[in-house]
């Protein structure tokens, strides 16, 4: 079951250093999450439809995620793990 999160809810969880998101949908391609530290954050069975610009995605995991419209422009992606994801951009 997918749980919809508003961008504002998602940002608050990131600011609280939440490290695991399972079965969530975050959709607002007009929104850019810029310069956030997402190191080690794990996304599983998620639909992510936002711009991640200049974010730290080191050691982040995207497992069984729909990333079709995600943007990771200028992100640090060292050891970023992507498995069984759907994407047009990566």
From TrEMBL:
Entries under Gene3D superfamilies matching the protein: E3 ubiquitin-protein ligase SopA
Protein name in the entry: Pentapeptide repeat protein
Higher taxonomy: Bacteria, Pseudomonadati, Spirochaetota, Spirochaetia, Leptospirales
